[in-house]
Amino acid sequence: MRARYAYMLTIVILSFILLAYVLDATRTVSVLSFSLRYAVPLILAAMVGVICERSGVINIGIEGQMLMSAFAGFFGAALTGNLIVGTMIGVGTGMIMGAFLATGAVTWKMDQIIAGTIINILATGLTSFFYAQGYVLPAITPQLRIPGLADIPLIGPVLFDNGLFTYAAIASAFVLWILLFKTIWGLRTRAVGEMPGSADTSGVNVQRMRFLNVTFAGALAGLAGAYLSIEAASNFDRGMTAGRGFTALAIMIFGAWNPIGAMAAALFFGLANGLASQLQTDEVIDIPPQFINMLPYVLTIVLLAIVSGRIKPPAAVGKPYEKE
Amino acid sequence: MSVTDPSQTDLGHTDPDPMRAGRWPRVQAVAIPVVSVLLAFALGGILIWLQGVNPFYAYWVLFENALGSSEGLLRVMQKSTPLILTGLAVTIGLRTGLFNIGAQGQLLVGAIGAAWAGYNFQLPALIHIPFAIAFGMLCGAAWASIAGVLRAYRSVSEVITTIMLNAVAIALVDYLASRPLKEPDQPITRTPPVADSAALPDFGTVPAGFLIALAVAIFFSWFLTRTNQGFRFNTVGMNPNAANYAGIGVKRTIFLAMAVSGALAGLGGAVETLGITGRFEPTFNAGLGFDGITIALLARANPLATIPAALLVGILRSGAATLQFETGIEPEVVDVILALTLLFVAAPIVSRLLLRKKTQKRTSVDSGGGGV
């Protein structure tokens, strides 16, 4: 049932885009590119949520993990004079923050919500405390135009003429989907998130699995953070993640804890945002920007109210595993 | 996600092992927060030292500024007022097995509600002040009730809905202050100032809001331990199955607790608006709700203990600006210290240090899980 609605909605949106392209090609491409850029950090951050929750750990610290990585990535790139090294530092910082959550939530069996809250407060504090002005990136991030594919009308300029982060984000959703549903790692991860007791009985090390998954998910939060400071803004600002880590949680739920679904949800909210700001600029209709900002959250609350009991989070999410 | 799973709603502040009841848990209840705060200050001191500032001097500046003069004391009382109330808001939730991380949103909605009630009416002060406060509380309660209804009747985790509602509240109050409730003919996004008849007075050097906050903390300490409704809150928090078996309406209790929690956060926003800021601006009130989480956990979900916990946070927050002026240390060092405090209170680090012989499984307060 749900899948059918999702397909129908996708078809409606795609035909709408096609119609818009026929009417005004330049504007359509610019709106779609804007939407995709908006969605990139959300896709990556939502993948963090999917991996953690599928493993049975709530991660409300994505926001803080991204902020720390955006900070470390930007200053890493500025100080070493190398964007790749900066990005690596961002990803590494994300993993350290992931390991921090894993230590609290898995090893110490701390309350997972509190552990995430600590990450968020700590990230706000540390990044503002060590913030310094006057640093610039050595270069702008290169765009990779894929020859051939980029010449296809509509799809080409939107999908195949982007920065590397964009390709990484889209790839991460597909790779994660395959990993989760077609590999042994995925089976074990889902088992650990749904029925850790049974997983343990069949020989899976629940604690180690959770620890590693949460840590490696942090790398994707690091990538999302590095995208914000290194590619999107070319700068670091205090609190620059601006709630994207929380939007990612909404998107994860909207995508029913499925990587592809989450990516589709991120693209949908990106499109709503791009469309609204274009209509605003053209003075067609006056939608207050705040209403667009609250859209993902309001829709998630409405969705949870309607379908609660039908789409469910992994059964063991939020509970530390106690061996019996 | 399900309300009926006891493991999800067992709040850690209750002792699962009655044999251990006695002196130890009480000593722990004081010792763990105190040692945690000291450890956090020590680590924060290292950060300050790395910036080339003597940490003892920095902390002296912080406390001297707050406690050394009557203006400083007034500032601390003003800063602590909304913090006591958001701390209580989170505490009421925790005692009922709910983790309300939406105090920030409820406070914002309460603040703008009180501002509207304050500037839109001309009433005698005796009516206007209670009306504006009550309206702010009502707004906060209504906002929290969205999460309360969903948790009680649709089994949707209050953690996720309150996170979402925080974000919606931030956007909503920004919209209200920039369009319908905006002060006319002003470039700044803010509401008109509240009428004089709605402004909270000072009693001598003590702001009225501070007295309200103290009274509310004392009231809830009595309420939770001495009334039937308080007993219902606690029982549902400890074991909803047992509560249900005992004939307590679990769903109704959860809904009510969430509404009370939201009303308290809304009250925090209302006294802040009517007593200190005098109007609503979206940049005001930042972080007050999140500090409430730290305060409630530091106070181990004890209403009376939220007073000293909020005073400590109030001292740090009110001294931070002077600290920056005197030493160049960024005021966000306070966030680092508070995050570390929260870590030491919630993680089993300090409790293991204090009780080396046997690991206590449940020495820290927690939200009792609750899936997202």
Give a description of the structure.
The complex is a heterodimer of chains A (324) and B (372). With 324 residues, chain A is mainly α. Chain A has a single domain, classed as ABC transporter involved in vitamin B12 uptake, BtuC (Orthogonal Bundle). Helix content of chain A is 73%, strand content 2%. Chain A is built from 13 helices and two strands. Chain A has helices at 2-23, 25-54, 62-80, 83-107, 112-129, 155-159, 164-182, 184-194, 196-201, 206-232, 244-254, 259-281, 289-307; strands spanning 143-145, 161-163. Chain A has a two-stranded antiparallel sheet with strand order 1-2. The two termini of chain A are 39 Å apart. Chain B has 372 residues and is mostly helical. Chain B has a single domain (6-12, 37-354), classed as ABC transporter involved in vitamin B12 uptake, BtuC (Orthogonal Bundle), CATH 1.10.3470. Chain B contains 15 helices and two strands. Chain B has a two-stranded antiparallel ribbon. In chain B, a hairpin with a 2-residue loop joins strand 1 (202-203) and strand 2. The longest helix of chain B has 30 residues, at 125-154. Chain B is globular, with a radius of gyration of 21 Å. Mean pLDDT of chain B is 86; it is low at 1-21 and 357-372. At the A-B interface, helix 5, helix 11 and helix 13 of A face helix 6, helix 7, helix 12 and helix 14 of B.
